[in-house]
Design brief:
This protein is mostly helical. The chain has helices at 5-9, 22-43. The protein has a domain at 16-43. It has two helices and no strands.
Length: 44
């Protein structure tokens, strides 16, 4: 991805294929929301 170290460790890369379902994508979205929310709470 050609990013510096700070960006690499604060980034998430997703790959989506034609066989991924909407339900799978919603599960991932919910999980990411939870992790980001928890991480933000630790910083504040």
């Amino acid at each position: 991805m050609d990013l510096d170290e700070v960006a690499v460790f604060s980034s998430i890369r997703f790959s989506i294929g034609k066989f991924n379902t909407k339900e799978e994508m919603e599960i991932v979205i919910d999980a990411v929301k939870n992790v980001v929310g928890d991480s933000r709470a630790m910083v504040n």
